[in-house]
Amino acid sequence: MPDASRPSTPAQGDDELLEIFHALKRGVGRELVTDSNVDGLIGLAHAYGQQQLEYLLREWRSTCGEDAENMNFELFSKQPPTA
Predict the structure, then answer these.
(1) Residue from 26, 24, 49, 52 nearest 37 by CA
(2) Cα 21 to Cα 44: distance, rounded to the nearest angstrom
(3) CA–CA separation, 48 vs 46, rounded Å?
(4) Could you say which of 8, 23, 45, 78 has the lowest number of CB atoms within 10 Å?
(5) pTM over 0.70
């Protein structure tokens, strides 16, 4: 059974995934990360020792930020907390 905490690197020849990975290393291309490619990107980040990028991709994949549009933020108080 594969270990979910250590995704495997994508198959060689996956040029599109590599392009996205290199764009992310340059600090651009965040809009190209999708549910279908995030695991491969995490695997690349791990394989290339890009710990910060790996962490950020894992955070992107986490369930806590998955459905921000449906959080009903309008229900939260607009007033700052009192001390």
Answers:
(1) 24
(2) 7
(3) 5
(4) 78
(5) no
